[in-house]
């Protein structure tokens, strides 16, 4: 049903749009698509991420119940992202580590927090059929 030209849309709060741009563009290397006084839209690994200016940001970066991210199909893409995070000294919450080791759902994971305490998780499953 989803075409390669379609994009998943995720909207999150941001306390400061300049901080959001610094983190997502100059930290993670995603492309800024549009910027307005109250929001900024990014091409987040092929999907649409919108940071809306808000006073209601999480007090702390907590993985559950809410986070978002990317499940990389190719291990080299996960490795590249992990190197970028290390080089740019981004705020890491967990990982890189292996979850569910020895099971069919074994995967590598890395969780970050943006400046507004939104949690972003990156994964790569050993079995690529499990990325969905």
UniProtKB/TrEMBL annotation:
<feature type="domain" description="VOC">
    <location>
        <begin position="6"/>
        <end position="125"/>
    </location>
</feature>
<protein>
    <submittedName>
        <fullName>Glyoxalase</fullName>
    </submittedName>
</protein>
<dbReference type="InterPro" id="IPR037523">
    <property type="entry name" value="VOC_core"/>
</dbReference>
<dbReference type="InterPro" id="IPR004360">
    <property type="entry name" value="Glyas_Fos-R_dOase_dom"/>
</dbReference>
<dbReference type="InterPro" id="IPR029068">
    <property type="entry name" value="Glyas_Bleomycin-R_OHBP_Dase"/>
</dbReference>
<dbReference type="Pfam" id="PF00903">
    <property type="entry name" value="Glyoxalase"/>
</dbReference>
């Amino acid at each position: 049903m989803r075409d390669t030209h379609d994009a998943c849309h995720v909207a999150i709060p941001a306390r400061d749009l300049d901080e959001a741009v610094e983190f997502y563009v100059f930290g993670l290397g995603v492309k800024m698509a549009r910027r307005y006084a109250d929001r900024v839209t990014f091409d987040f690994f092929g999907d649409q991420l919108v940071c809306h200016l808000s006073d209601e940001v999480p007090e702390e970066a907590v993985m559950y119940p809410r986070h978002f991210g990317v499940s990389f199909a190719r291990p080299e893409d996960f490795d590249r992202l992990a190197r970028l995070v290390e080089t740019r000294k981004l705020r890491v919450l967990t990982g890189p580590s292996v979850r569910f080791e020895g099971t069919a759902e074994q995967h590598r994971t890395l969780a970050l927090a943006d400046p507004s305490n939104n949690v972003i998780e990156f994964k790569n499953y050993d079995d690529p059929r499990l990325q969905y």
